[in-house]
């Protein structure tokens, strides 16, 4: 079972980002009407930039697909790290109801990046002093 844990974690994280990115790109999920006011303001600001949300959802879709297929997994983990951090901070400060999912995403990211073989070795190389 221990050898299957990285595969399960990678597939879960990949599915969440692939599905979320695709749903955002194709406008498959309507915006919930009961969002906190600060989160609505934040989302409106991102949408006002015109380019950022399509870019973010494209990155989520591509990196989710990379995780699902197993190609360039360390690269996908590094690219998604600031996205996961932002998801956590948004929920911590603006919408605490989503905090459990943000914590699970963060734990999956940390596990795959720093503890799961064979991905952790490549990610840890980024933190070595040259």
Automatic annotation (TrEMBL):
Q: Cite the InterPro entries for this sequence.
A: DoxX (IPR032808)
- What membrane topology is given? Multi-pass membrane protein
Tell me one Pfam family matched here. Answer: DoxX
Subcellular location as annotated: Membrane
Task: Name the keywords, alphabetized.
Answer: Membrane, Transmembrane, Transmembrane helix
List all membrane-crossing ranges: 7-26, 38-56, 68-93, 99-120
User: What protein am I looking at?
Assistant: DoxX family protein
**From which source organism is this entry?**
Bdellovibrio svalbardensis
């Amino acid at each position: 079972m221990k050898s299957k844990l990285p595969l399960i974690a990678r597939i879960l994280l990949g599915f969440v980002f692939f599905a979320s990115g695709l749903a955002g790109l194709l406008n498959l999920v309507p915006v919930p009407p009961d969002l906190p006011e600060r989160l609505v303001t934040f989302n409106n600001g991102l949408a006002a930039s015109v380019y950022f949300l399509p870019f973010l959802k494209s990155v989520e879709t591509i990196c989710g697909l990379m995780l699902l297929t197993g190609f360039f997994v360390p690269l996908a983990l590094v690219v998604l790290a600031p996205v996961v951090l932002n998801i956590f901070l948004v929920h911590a400060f603006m919408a605490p109801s989503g905090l459990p999912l943000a914590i699970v995403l963060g734990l999956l990211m940390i596990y795959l990046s720093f503890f799961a073989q064979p991905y952790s070795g490549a990610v840890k190389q980024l933190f070595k002093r040259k």
